[in-house]
Write a structure and sequence with these properties.
Blueprint (H helix, E strand, L loop, with lengths): L5 H21 L6 H22 L13 H4 L13 E3 L4 E3 L1 H10 L12 H13 L38
Antiparallel strand pairs: 1-2
Helix pairs in contact: 2-5
Bound molecules: heme C (HEC).
């Protein structure tokens, strides 16, 4: 802190001012249907990668042969849209990726992913794609097996396994 120059302090302010000033310059028309389609295709590409990872495509994520899909078929009980939230067993508020890493390290005995990695984003993209628009209450750990209807996001080609829909 002592050797932080004035320049160090002023620079962020100058950059923010420049960003604000340029905002009006870069304002643009709404995205076209074609652009939106391209963006969604990019998202679905990640969803595909997430699907593969969820079903064991990365060996370092597991040392015992278990993959996410064994316990969270069709992403059930992963409740991605409820994060960040308090997790009783971890005793603090965590983000989705931290719970993913908890499952990689504990039930799967694997090596955690970098929270900012493309792989973590892919797992999140797949889980969110499956929960698109579905309200699921943030449950207690004791409610993890509660029935959650798995809904398939538009455009993702794989068929539901149906295992995740218990009929409680
Ligand atoms: C052996 C079974 C098992 C495997 C394999 C497993 N999980 Fe879990 N997962 C659990 C259990 C049990 C919990 C509840 C933990 C708790 O609340 O303390 C959980 C909780 C979660 C949660 C938090 C859900 C919530 O609403 O609190 C997420 C997200 C999650 N798992 C994702 C994953 C992902 C992604 C993988 C694969 C990398 C994975 N899990 C692999 C059993 C498993």
């Amino acid at each position: 802190m002592k050797h932080m120059s004035r320049k160090t302090l002023i620079l962020p302010a100058v950059i923010s001012a420049a960003v604000i000033a340029s905002a009006s310059v870069i304002a643009r028309e709404p995205f076209t249907a074609e652009e939106l389609a391209r963006q969604d295709a990019a998202r679905l590409e990640l969803v595909e990668q997430g699907y593969a990872l969820w079903h064991g495509s990365k060996p370092s994520m597991s040392s015992n042969g278990l993959a996410c899909g064994n316990c969270h078929p069709d992403t059930t009980a992963s409740n991605p849209q409820t994060f960040p939230k308090y997790i009783a067993s971890v005793r603090r508020v965590v983000q989705f990726g931290e719970m993913v890493n908890w499952c990689i390290e504990n039930p799967q005995g694997g090596k955690a992913l970098d929270l900012g990695s493309k792989e973590m984003t892919a797992l999140y993209a797949y889980a969110m794609n499956m929960h698109n628009g579905i309200p699921i209450s943030p449950g207690l750990a004791t409610e993890q097996t509660k029935s959650i209807p798995a809904k398939y996001g538009k455009g993702f080609p794989s068929k539901p396994s149906g295992i995740g829909n218990d009929t409680r």
